[in-house]
Write a structure and sequence with these properties.
single chain, mainly alpha, 18 helices
Length: about 450
Amino acid sequence: MTWTDYLDRRILPYLGLIFGLFATTPLVWVRLFGTSIAPYHVFALGLIMAVAITPGAIDTLQRLIKSGKLIWAACGLLAVAMMISFAGATIIFEPFFFVKYLAFVTTALATGMLFFITIRRGGFPVVALMPAVAGVIFVAFISVQFSLASIDPIEVLTLAIARVDPNIVMNQLFRAAFAASNDDVLFRSNLKQSLSFAFIVMIPIGLLALSYAKFANNAVKAIALAGIGFAVVMTIAPFSRAAWLALFLIGLCYAISYVRTAVGLSIFAGILGLGIPMLFVLGGNSSLFQLIEARLTASDSLDARVFTAEEHWQAIGESPFLGRSEIVEGWAHNVIIDAWSAFGILGMVAALLFFLAMLGMTIKALILTLSAPLGQRKVHATIAALLCPALVRMVTAPNVTIDFPVWVGLGMALALAADAWGETATGDHVRASSPQPRGRPAFQV
């Protein structure tokens, strides 16, 4: 069986939507016509409309909501807290950001529905090629950007390593390249976060899809692996510490899936505890490692965030129930603190519920990873891995809207959970693990 055997005509529209979504997600920082309307807003609207008219959409929606009841409840509660805040004399949260938040949540729901339909109809293995397709489109686009900005990326990276200055990468490479087509130069942080997390959500999905795709053509399998490798590189390249943490946690989730016994888990924890410090010791003399270490130990942004967080705590102390009544410059980069400060106790409860619901789901997935049959462990590990970026952004996000790629990953995690943990699950989690003959979908929703 070759990869083309998976391409049933009835699944092609859904595969097209998934590939379109992931091909455009790394381009979230591109603004159209000089406005704040980004490509993902346009695509998200089309995605929502396409999924809404899909046969069985209501049933799929019910399954997806059921798989993450507390998460969706927290999202709704936070939206209510935001709306209540608009009644105050001082508008803490701009209406545009409120609309963006609703769009992100809705897109997560639509992405999950699309992903669930694709899984149930047997088209999942082809998704293994998605990181490669997105990577090719990204490389083509960024090459044009480098040309417009007259940037030699190798020269910039060489200078950054020579001076042990990661800011050279962040400022002169990514920021300068995209400023060539955009006058807004105040988006360095958002740029690298969006770019990193756009690729990081592709890694778990690519790995899981690849494990279910029995490609007869080794060249196609090599392309899929190269795409995953490129996604890893692009997670690291923008020098986002939050993305590095998320990548580490994703690796941890998959590593746990290979643990077989309680003794093995203890040995794994010991190796992890000794291996990380040893890595720093052995790699300390490397110029590239020194560049990474300089980024890890940089305290400029951390100091600024601590100072801002103190101001927010002070505002919470003055008005813990209703939220602050005056503008505080900057966000605390912690969704729970920010929501409490801006929207009062209701916002804090919503944000805390959001975090705890995702954490509980992650723990459940990891427990199942340890106890499930060998053939199903990677599915549970992928659910946990897709939730890791969202957990990291809860304590690092620039404001309470979080990032668009994180919402996409959250939607897919809930879709996988709906398939693997749902009432109709038969033990053959991810129906694509047993590909059906052409013309016979695995499950008709």
